[in-house]
Amino acid sequence: MKKLIFLSLILGYSYCFTQEDKGQETPAVKVLKNNFLTKISDKLSFSAGPAQILSIPIFQNNKDLGSSYGVMSAIVFKSSDNVNPIKTVLAPSYEKSEKLGDSFSYRHYFFPGKGELAMARFSKSQGPKKEAVFWYYGESALGKDKSLDFFVSDSWDPKYSFYGYGPNSSEKDGENYVLDYKTLQLSLKFPIAGKVKIEYSPSYSQKKIKNGPFGSDEPFWQSYPNEYSQLSEQKKFFINKLSIFMDTTDHPFLPKIGNFLSFSAAFSAKPYSSYSYALYKAEAKKYYKLFSEDQVTALRYELQWISGNKNIPFYQMPVLGESSGLRAAGEGRYCSRAKFLATVEHRMTVSKSAFMKFLSELEFTPFLDMGTVAENPKDLKINKMIYGPGAAFRLVLRPHIAASANLAFYKEGYNFLINVGYPF
Predict the structure, then answer these.
(1) Pick from 341, 347, 255, 247: nearest CA to 297
(2) What gap in Å lies between CA 169 and CA 254, rounded to an integer?
(3) DSSP labels for 224-279?
(4) Mean pLDDT, rounded, for 301-307
(5) Gyration radius of the chain over CA positions
(6) Is residue 124 left, alpha or beta, with left meaning phi > 0 and alpha meaning psi from -120 to 50?
(7) Which listed site, 66, 128, 347, 392, has its alpha carbon 20 to 30 Å from 368?
(8) CB of 150 within 8 A of CB of 184?
(9) What structural domains does the chain harbor?
(10) DSSP secondary-structure letter at 167?
(11) Is 70 exceeded by the pLDDT of residue 288?
């Protein structure tokens, strides 16, 4: 979901304001006509009747699927409404992946009203990856500061691998699998006192696994016969999640100062779910300027644990991996019933310039990811911690977007990761 938000922002809000109406300037920063990035964007964009078309190069890299490259065309239709200057954005794309082959995607973004965004996405690859998604977000859909978020998807995703349980699992035991899942989720968010809000998120999903196309010559069902016999049949999950959080940060996506505290509890119960269990999560984030305005130290702590059924699927357990706190490892590298994560980053802005009507910043960020998993929260020990030091180079287009290239190391190797957005 986070990636969908960032893509929506950059395709929708960002680009339309870059094609400036003559005689108008951005209030944030004066556009430098000779800026290198602006010259590139001018070469990649053109007008066609009521639409503005921008071709966006795509390059991604991660440990599980390797590298991919391609191009996305963002076709932006403006409206005459000053409050909502964008009517819709069409974004077809093509990617070539070393593991998935040719992939084709189509995204359609709608901006029905102020603070509202809807997106439909369809994608299919030569490999076993396909996806159909619809997402709606209304910042004040239920009244002032009362937001509504609706998400539905039908996907086959071959990115994941399973390595066994616990912090001592071995990378050589990893087996790739395809996760076939259908999800319907609703989120309602309300303020209760000052910066404190509450969120209720019911969801229903159906999931099953299949043998993956990557990895060793031995298929998943041979390496993990118990898991496969259980989880190759469709399981259902009706989950009610309640969260309370306090957010004093200065920006929802690219914070520089402030605190974020949250606690959530998610409950799954028979007969509406295949398993009865509860998942708890506590998280704290802090951002502060340690040495100067251009240097931000960011800290994150996270604790998760499960109670209830002892045989819940591994894909519903807390995990530690590429997108879940340990950038040096693959997706879902470590898995168990409890997880602790701590991350520190020092984000240093090394240059600033104008890009179209946005302020672009180049950041250099050394970081340290550390965490572990265990069967019980009391067994989350310091001597079982897994460390992943590294560094990131980021292009930040304020106020909405960051593109990041990360190089991280840990005891089993390294990972070169290119993605969108801050990790936290």
Answers:
(1) 347
(2) 35
(3) SHHHHHHHTS-EEEEEEEEEEEEE--S-SSS--SEEEEEEEEEEE-TTTSSS-EEE
(4) 97
(5) 22
(6) beta
(7) 66
(8) no
(9) 2-420 (2.40.160.50)
(10) T
(11) yes
Distance CA 215, CA 203 (A): 32
Cβ contacts of residue 243 below 8 Å, gap of 6+?
A: 198, 199, 200, 201, 262, 263, 264, 265
Residues 6+ apart with CB under 8 A from 149: 135, 136, 137, 138, 185, 186, 187, 188, 189
pLDDT tens track for 355-377 = 555 567 889 999 999 999 999 99
Instruction: Tell me the pLDDT tens digit for each residue of 40-62.
Output: 666 667 777 778 888 888 888 88
Nearest to 252 by CA among 72, 81, 6, 1: 6
CA pair distance 115, 240, nearest whole angstrom:
26
**Token reading at 65:** 């699927």
For the cut 70, the answer to whether the pLDDT of residue 18 exceeds it is: no
Distance CA 18, CA 10 (A): 11
Cα separation, 161 vs 214, in Å, equals 9
DSSP, res 381: -
Q: Which residue has the tokens 């001597």?
A: 383
Q: What is the DSSP letter of 20?
A: P
Q: Give the pLDDT score at 22.
A: 37
Burial code of 230-264, b = ≥16 C-beta within 10 A, e = fewer? ebbeebbbbbebebebeeebeeebbbbeebbbbeb
- Unique residue bearing structure tokens 């007008």: 47
Nearest Cα residue to 407 out of 167, 63, 169: 63
Residues 6+ apart with CB under 8 A from 37: 353, 355, 356, 360
Neighbours of 137 (CB within 10 A): 20
Give the pLDDT score at 359. Answer: 66
3-state helix, strand, coil in the chain (%, to 5): 10, 55, 30
pLDDT tens string 314-341 = 999 999 999 999 999 988 899 999 999 9
- Give 293's Cβ-side CA count (13 Å radius): 3
State the amino acid at position 175 in one-letter form. E
The structure tokens 């190759």 sit at: 232
Longest dimension (CA), the chain: 67
Query: Quick check: helix, strand or coil at residue 35?
Result: coil
